[in-house]
Amino acid sequence: MSTEEQRAIELLNRVSYGRLATSMRAMPFVAPARHIVADGGVLIRMHRGLGYHRACNGSVVAYGADNLTSGAENLWSVQFTGTAAIIEPTEEQLAAFGQAPRSVDNEPFEPVYMRIEPQFVTVHTLDYSSDQAEQPEQALDVHSLERHLHHVA
Length: 153
Prior knowledge:
By secondary structure, this protein is of the alpha+beta class. It is built from four helices and nine strands.
């Protein structure tokens, strides 16, 4: 595993939820999912009732997570692209996922678990200089902020 892939895994471990993207009947979709990292792969938990797992199983998917709404000065986004497969998690993995939601869209939550074997990993970081972040809100011009975008594939 490269240094950048290790960095992406470390960042992914900082948040619990992300978004899974693929297509169903030739139409793209994005769905929220809970994730953990295990044995170099990304394991996700989704609601079986939505049927998204059927479109993902055996297909290439992208899974992304970020801290873009955290309010932090250093923002990041990671994406893992690879083949997804339905799995039965171990007891240890189930414990790592933690408590499941009671319902999804007013329907009792029924979990389905998938593993994504990453083939491509992308890390983006956006750094806002601290002196500009200290300016009063009304004087802050989003378009003039110094930004650093870092892309690794």
